[in-house]
């Protein structure tokens, strides 16, 4: 395949990944990695390097808008980044020592899990009860704008959330994805932070987490300019278009269709990993 | 009263942070686009070969190499420079947050931010790559 044809295919694929990713809340890597490895026969280590670039691009792009609205809790983000950056580097360092087949299997399992998380009915656990001592000490409790004015919220189980973020960071560094589904568990379910705050804050954190592992990948030569270029341009364009149409679209049906596609890709990755084709 | 004041300080910081992120993304994407056009201009008919990862083969994996390649106006070096700009955008965000916490005299978060920055700077060390 010629460089020109390869660039066009990846550009289109990345555009779709960015578009669907911003409509469903799933990161671009979920589509990028299967496209590169299963369809184009790219080694999974290059795919991981390209995917992390798409994570940084979409995270910084969308965080710019959210931060201005004042929903993101910068203190929560900064504190939890201690866990995610350390673990992302650990994940990025160990990724080459693990058999690529195992990486494909782990990736498939995380994909399946993300698909389930996406269609699962969300329950808002947030409240304004007394929070833990650690949350008060770290000044994590905050407020965010809603239709009815500023809404206060209390943060719980900081230690549990911190530990879960450590797991999310390892997975992120290992696979080159944002591991948004794991971050949601940490923030929504364990720390009981309101949805709007947890999604925007996790998005805000993803860029920093990804940057830490991206540097390790760059040094190792996993970020190839020929792949990174169409991935970065395509994903960001797609995500920008997606966020523009998000306001007018009902995404419920789209999420179910996308979950089926992701589950299919996940099984493909697991199958290829088990049979040693990846 | 003091709570009011903090709120406004936080709002200002959020607006500046948002602008910083946007400028970083636009700048890096522009550089990657220019590099991409240069790269396609000279390499479009080559045959791609990414089937086997080879850490020795890939060029421009060190920051110094990227700058040398930039001098020669090589497309792939320009793309990698754009990638570097993209990677440094969230890192600059951390640096900026530390300064804003310093202005707010929130020393606990100056410390937390500095720690996160140190972790990232540690990843810049080549020793991590075996």
UniProtKB/TrEMBL annotation, chain A:
Enumerate the UniProt keywords alphabetically. Answer: Cell membrane, Membrane, Transmembrane, Transmembrane helix, Transport
Membrane-spanning parts: 46-67, 79-96, 102-119, 158-182, 227-247, 254-271
Q: Name one GO cellular component term.
A: plasma membrane
Write down the InterPro entries for this protein, in alphabetical order: TM_pro_TauE-like (IPR002781), TSUP (IPR052017)
As for subcellular location, the record says: Cell membrane
Q: Specify where it is mainly localized.
A: membrane
Q: Which residues form a coiled coil?
A: none
Under the heading Pfam families, the entry gives: TauE
**Membrane topology type:** Multi-pass membrane protein
Family per record = Belongs to the 4-toluene sulfonate uptake permease (TSUP) (TC 2.A.102) family.
| Name by which UniProt lists this protein | Probable membrane transporter protein
Species lineage: Bacteria, Pseudomonadati, Bacteroidota, Sphingobacteriia, Sphingobacteriales
TrEMBL record, chain B:
Query: Where does the sequence pass through the membrane?
Result: 20-40, 77-96, 108-125
Show the InterPro entries listed in the entry. DUF1634
Does the keyword field hold Transmembrane helix? yes
Task: Give any Pfam family that matches.
Answer: DUF1634
Sorted alphabetically, the keyword list is:
Membrane, Transmembrane, Transmembrane helix
**Name of the protein described by the UniProt record:** DUF1634 domain-containing protein
